[in-house]
Structures are given as C-alpha cells and as structure tokens.
C-alpha cells in the first residue's frame, strides 16, 4: 500500500462525557483486532476478502446479539466497496455497533481499518451496513428494544438507518424494474470479438460440507462463511477470464433467502457475466441440500473484480463471449447493473457535498437520488454549531460557515399540527401563496407518492437581471417514530426534457428543505435549511448581513398561510392527508 494512502488521522468520534463524568461508550459496540498471518493471506501476501468477510460478519453478529440479548442471524449486507488491501503482518481493526433497531431486525454499522505496526499509521479499508434478525425464542417472536442515540454521530446514523431500511425493503423490486428499463435502453451489445473468451470457460462449481466449525451456537452456517465460500469461487471464475490473480473491489447488496445448517452440502456456482474495459462482473449462487432433498436457494451475489498491473493500476481485460440465451441475458443485465452500481456509488457512497449540484434524473437512479436528498438534509439538520444571525417577528435566522461553504437555517413556530404543516408545505405548487420568490411552480414528474420533480421560476435578485428557474426533486418523509421530524428535502436535478433556456438563468440547489417537529399539542417548530449556492446566495445575503427583513417577512407569511389553511385540512383523516 502506498504511503500516501495512509491516513494518520483516521476518523474517530470525539469523546462524549456523561453527567456522571464517565466517558460514554455505545453499549452495543464490539471491536475485533486481528493480525494478518500467512494462513489468512492469498498469493499476493494480502488478507483474502473471504477471511475479512468472516471477521466482519462475526463482529457484527456479536454487536447485534449484545443488543438483542438472544441469537441473531445475518439477513442482508449492503454494498461493500473495498478501498485498500491489507498485507501480512498488518492489523485489521473492525468496529461494529447497532445503529437502529426495528421490530425484530436491526441495522449494524461496520467500519474496517488497517494498522501498520511499524509506521504506526492507519487507513480505512471499507465500511458496511448489515441487517440482522433476532431468532425466535421459546417465548415467541422477539420484540427488540429501541436504540437510544447519545452522540451527534449516533443521532445521524439512527436517522439515516430508517432511510436505508426503506431502500432495502424495495431493493429487489427496484433492481428488477431498473434491469427491465436499463436493458431496453442499452440495446444489443453482444458483439463478436476475435479474441473474446467464452463465458463457459469461466464457469466454476464447487461443493462444501457444512461442519460444526462453520456454524454458530444455533447450528446455522455463519453468513460470513457462506460469503467467504462465494468469494472463493468468484475469484476462480475471474482468474479464468484473464489468466491472472484478480482483486475484489465491490460486492453488491444481497439478501440471505434462507438458512443453512450443519450437515448441509452447499453448492456454489460462479461465472463471469460481462467484462468491461477495466473490470468484470462475476455472478455467484449458493444452494444447499441434505440427502435427496431438492436444492434450496441460499443466496446470490454480484462481485466486481479488477486485475492490477505492477503499478497497482487496473489493466485492460479481454472481452467475454456470452453463452446463447441465458448468457446473453446475463451479459445485458450486467451492463445495466454497472450503471446502477455507478449511480449507487456516485450518489450514495460519497459525501453529499461531493455530489454535483445537478445530477441527471432517470428511473435507474431515482431511489438513490431520493436517498441522497433526504440523507443530506438529515446531516445538515444534525449540525449543532449554528450561529444566531438575526431574530425578527418570531423568525430566527442562523448561519453556519464551514470549509468555505455557507449554510443558513430559518426557524419559527406555528399553532398548527405537524401533520397538517407537512401536507401544506410538501405541495410546492402552493408555496407561491406565501413565498414571493416563487413566481411559477409546476409538477413535471410525479415519480412516486413521496418523490416529485418541480420546475420553479423565481425573480432575479438583481435589478434588470434574468429570472431564474430551478428543476428540483422534492422528497418527503413521514417520521418512523414520534421522536423524529417530518422531512421535505429539496435538491436540483437535470431532465433532458427541460434543458436550460436563453431567457432564464438556470439556478441550482445542493441541499435544502424543511424539518417539522411537533413540540406541544398543536405547537409545531418549522426549520428551513439551505446550503447556499451561487443561485441562492443573492436572495439571503442582505438578511445575513442584517440589512433586510425579507426572510422574516417570508416566513411570517408562511405562518399566516399555515394558520389560514389549518381548518381546510382539519376534517381530513390522517390517511387522507
């Protein structure tokens, strides 16, 4: 590993001191440290990803069981991107803790880092989110106790866990829809190449007998062990394509469809679905049987490999020649998954400040843009270092300057139930009734019940200048529990049907939106957030400098609008709202 890859200041949460004076430690936190020995390593002297997955699964399971107080099983693992490899003699550190518990399942967050004992430096290897389910006990189905976040970091992860769970629950359906849509867009690409490698040549099948060392105390096969066996056959398939030793870079989100137990024969199959210029996708399937019973589908996964040259740079790979029918289907689906994978990595995995202001919207990235939109607002609202800039007409304006970026927050209270405030504010077509900056607002795409794309026209902030228009994705979320606020998140997107025009300046919004919290009976706190961009800053600069009351007037008008329309929604049931 290159020396510049090391991070001597690997992120650690600041200490949180309890009222008793003791240093707080998350009660579900579990740490594992393992020195990499030759028996853990591959041909390159680096820890095999299969071994790392086993360690990660064990650590996450211990964290889940510490919270649940009973045995737990792995239900799913989100996308994993491996940023670095780990060599023999280095130390692997794995930290796991429960971010949030639901009825009988919980999300466990994992951070894996690597330490060089000789240079005393550390680097981040990967992070992951795994879902564990508490097993039924003799008393029946387990009802998990709630996680109580204490630190700011815990509160953020607690809030984001609900959004990640929402994405997992519709993952399979979403992927199937996206594959159907994307394959219809890509068209035929199974061209014949003179030196293409037949996909059949990369096919691998292996069988493993599940023994007691492979299982937990409930005689179920460790999820990490299954993942390690799957990684093994996938690596063999990838090696056959390029006649070289590949490096695993990503594992797509996957779900365990059923349990495996001691005595099972686990059949593992792998094949290269497609080879791109610098990477390849390998599909892996795990099935189990005992005796003469039919095969049970345990798990399927898609893994992306690269082959590195002597300079540790990805090298060009040979083409693949797919098999007829199923092979060509897998070939086309791999092209679609590559785009989906890039969207997920580009939009979800990076910090929201690293995402371009306007990301192209299409059905293949809708769910990921929605996630990024909501999570960016949650992260912004969780910040605690806001500075009060002005307070007029019961409207408070706060600012936050960090890393040469300016954010602002506007806060007020209204005597209207939070649910009604949420309904009224989430319909942006009505915002021009109280916000003079909204001259026009139209719905241009109703993506689903919670996500809508609007076109908004605003007057120029400068005399004689052009008006501005914005293409905005609005994502709204109701709270998962009473302690959370309602959310209306806004960000810019681009649509080919609505390109910029000459008579309007195209404005952009990186992160904005409302959080709505009911503090007392019918007393609701409304907070509006905006990470100021060049298109937004002119509208707020004079207020921040204390030279204007435009924003306090706007949000006073918002309060009047909400109270004026309160009775019009009072007769509706919550389900109608």
UniProtKB/TrEMBL annotation:
It catalyses: tetradecanoyl-CoA + H2O = tetradecanoate + CoA + H(+); dodecanoyl-CoA + H2O = dodecanoate + CoA + H(+); hexadecanoyl-CoA + H2O = hexadecanoate + CoA + H(+); butanoyl-CoA + H2O = butanoate + CoA + H(+). InterPro entries: Cytosol_ACT, HOTDOG_ACOT, HotDog_dom_sf, START-like_dom_sf, START_lipid-bd_dom, Thioestr_dom. Pathway: Lipid metabolism; fatty acid metabolism. It is found in: Cytoplasm; Mitochondrion matrix. It is an enzyme of class 3 (hydrolase). GO terms for molecular function: carboxylic ester hydrolase activity; lipid binding; long-chain fatty acyl-CoA hydrolase activity. Its EC number is 3.1.2.2. Pfam families: 4HBT, START. One of its GO terms (biological process) is acyl-CoA metabolic process. SUPFAM superfamilies: Bet v1-like (SSF55961), Thioesterase/thiol ester dehydrase-isomerase (SSF54637). It comes from the Eukaryota. Keywords: Cytoplasm, Fatty acid metabolism, Hydrolase, Lipid metabolism, Mitochondrion, Phosphoprotein, Repeat, Serine esterase, Transit peptide. One of its GO terms (cellular component) is cytosol. Has an acyl-CoA thioesterase activity with a preference for the long chain fatty acyl-CoA thioesters hexadecanoyl-CoA/palmitoyl-CoA and tetradecanoyl-CoA/myristoyl-CoA which are the main substrates in the mitochondrial beta-oxidation pathway. This is Acyl-coenzyme A thioesterase 11. It comes from Clupea harengus (Atlantic herring).
